[in-house]
Amino acid sequence: MNPIDLAFTPALEQARLIRSKQISPVELTELYLDRIEQLNPKVGSYYRIMAESAIADAKAKTEQLAGDVSEFPAFFGVPISIKDLNPVAGEPCSYGIKAAKNRIAEEDDGVVAKIKQAGFVILGKTATSQMGSFPYTEPPGFPPARNPWNLDYTPGGSSGGAASALAAGLCSVAQGSDGGGSIRGPAFCCGLVGIKPARGRVSHAPVGDRLGGLATNGPLGRTVADAAALLDVMAGYVSGDPYWLPDPDPSFLASTQQPLGQLKIGFATTLPPLGEATPLCKQAVLDTLALLEAMGHIVDEVALPNLEPLIEPFTTLWQCVLAEANIPGFVLEKVNRWLLSRARRVDSGAYQRAISQTQVISRKLVAFCEPYDLLVLPTYMHPSIRIGEWAKLRPAKTLENIIQWIAPCPPFNASGQPAIAIPTGKFDANGTPLGVQLVGRPASEALLITLAAQLEEARPWRLKRPDIATQR
């Protein structure tokens, strides 16, 4: 197998090749580090490349291959990236803040610990928007993360570096997080599979949840099976969690092979009061529906509830994270600085009202979805934007543009419902990918994964690769 094909081989297949001793963790890790050295200056996927520790870990794992491999964890020796909002012990964790570039984490985030236990080799820390606040990844003091499909365009955010790295073949799978579309949006922009798990599926241990249940860690993969298997790794209750879900039975990976009966599927391309998705994003939904109908499913257009009452309380909860972090405003970029000033004017009563309002609206949204097995929606309202496209706007206008663009994603962070973003295999005129999201009932990731795997089989998007990633 040539190096490019190996770099784009699914993570589960890489794990099989390692177990069968056809490749070693060292060979695979060195392959990705070489690709990172070549391409990261162009795509800005990684803030921190952990070459020394990655090679040391890969060498230790390669030596273990001499013994019995039957008890090895699922992803033994497979390289992965970690988003720079999640601490890795002994490594810098900047949160996209220039002043924190050299801030060393003292312990692993809980999800990082699970990733290590699964046998992964960590290649480095991927780029994030500052404090994870934005759907693009351009914090001051760092190079912007770029979309491998067109370097003039954003890979999304806040898991922009994770998606950029994965799409460019700079890791096997990637860890991300999603508080308002931060996994699904980058997956959409970069032609990947991104799962936002249901609330309580992935623990926030050891630090706890700072966003009132809006945010969760989750996987990005080039295939549905890879993303599902990584979700199996990340999922699970940790003692003391404020909310949790039972372990899936069968596993999420096994769900990719489950049969499906006829489903009742709702769809919408209009989000009141924000209007209709642009023609390309609307067509992505319609193309997916045509495929679903050909599979025998029942498809009905639905009128989504008015989402306007959610915008202000959601924004209040989101911006208050900046105040909770106790970060001085002068180290923040201008939109975060403006959001921080707004957050400081929110008293405890207003914050509690925002939580209550979000929960009331979420109840209505979950009830609306109950007659359907799932919904098919745009992931974002229009395709990827140019790097720096909104950089000169006033903060209020930037926020308005963000809300309009990412509108299909935050409602399901509020409701806690699972969602999965998948590509359609088609592209806009600028060469950036198009896709849709599937939104399920509470705790129904398995159904979404099963259907996404069937859609993937019908249109095998992973065979497409960015030109920059295939240059020898």
Global shape: globular
Sketch the topology as an H/E string, one letter per element.
Answer: HHHEHEHEHEHEEHHEEEHEHHHEHHEEH
Uncertain spans: none
Spatial sequence of strands, sheet with the most strands: 1-3-2-4-6-5-12-13-11-7-10
Report helical residue fraction: 25-40%
CATH architecture name: Alpha-Beta Complex
Explained architecture:
With 472 residues, the protein is of the alpha/beta class. The protein has one domain (3-470): Amidase signature (AS) enzymes (Alpha-Beta Complex). It has 16 helices and 13 strands. The protein has helices at 3-7, 11-19, 25-43, 51-64, 110-117, 160-167, 184-190, 224-234, 252-255, 279-294, 308-324, 334-343, 348-369, 395-406, 410-415, 445-458; strands at residues 46-49, 79-83, 121-126, 173-178, 193-196, 216-221, 264-267, 270-271, 275-276, 298-301, 374-378, 419-427, 433-440. Strands 1-3-2-4-6-5-12-13-11-7-10 form an eleven-stranded mixed beta sheet, with helices on both faces. A two-stranded antiparallel ribbon has the order 8-9. β12 and β13 form a beta hairpin. α11 (308-324) packs across α12. The protein is globular and about 60 Å long. It starts with a helix and ends in a 14-residue tail after the last helix. 54% of the residues are buried.
